[in-house]
Amino acid sequence: MLDWCIIVVLIVFILGFFYKQSAVHEFRMNQADASSKDALHELWAERVPLVIRGLPRLMLWTQEDVQERACYGSVPLFKDQSLSGWIQEMGRGQAGEAGGVMCP
After folding, report:
1. What is residue 10's predicted lDDT score, i.e. its pLDDT?
2. More reliable by pLDDT, 10 or 73
3. Is the separation of the CB atoms in 58 and 37 below 8 Å?
4. Per-residue pLDDT for 96 more than 80?
5. According to the model, what pLDDT value does residue 78 have?
6. Half-sphere exposure of 14 toward its Cβ, with a 13 Å CA cutoff?
7. Residue 40: how many CA atoms within 13 Å on its side-chain side?
8. Which alpha helices (DSSP H) does 1-104 contain, by range?
9. Per-residue pLDDT averaged across 9-34, rounded?
10. For residues 98 and 76, what is the distance between their CA atoms, to the nearest angstrom?
11. Who wins on pLDDT, 25 or 76?
12. What are the two backbone dihedrals, phi and then psi, of residue 82, each rounded to the nearest 5 degrees?
C-alpha cells in the first residue's frame, strides 16, 4: 500500500512540474516608430520580434503597378488569359459597380 501511495505522489509531482512549465508563457515584442531610425538598429540587435509603426504604404501589386510593368503582361493566369488581361477585363466589368476601383 505504501508503494502505491509513493507512486501516486510521484506522478502528481511530475504532472505538476510539467503543468507549471506549460502554463508560463512569456513573449516579448518590441515596438517602434519608423521615424526613429537609431532606436530601430538597437531593437533589431535584441533578436526579438519587432513591430514598426508608421510605415508608408507601398504602391506594389496594385492595378496600376501590374499594368505598367511589361513583365506581368506575359504571366499566365488562366489557359487563355494573362494576368494583365484579366485585370483589364475585371476593371471594365466592375467600373459601373464600384466606381472603377478594384481591390488591390
Report:
1. 94
2. 10
3. no
4. no
5. 83
6. 6
7. 11
8. 2-23, 37-45, 63-68, 83-98
9. 83
10. 26
11. 76
12. -90, 170
Distance separating alpha carbons of residues 82 and 85, to the nearest angstrom: 5
Beta-carbon neighbour count of residue 32 at 10 Å?
A: 18
Residues 39 and 32: their CA atoms lie apart, in Å, by 7
What are the backbone dihedrals phi and psi of residue 78, each rounded to the nearest 5 degrees, phi first?
-120, 180
Burial class (CB in 10 A: 0-12, 13-18, 19+), 30: middle
Model pTM above 0.90? no
Taking the C-alpha atoms of residue 74 and residue 82, their distance in angstroms, rounded to an integer, is 6
Q: Look-up: residue for cell 512569456?
A: 26
Question: Which pLDDT tens digit goes with each residue over 39-88?
Answer: 888 888 888 898 988 888 887 777 787 778 877 777 888 888 887 778 77
Rounded-to-integer distance, Cα 70 and Cα 19, Å: 58
Instruction: Specify whether the CB–CB gap between 43 and 32 falls below 8 A.
Output: yes
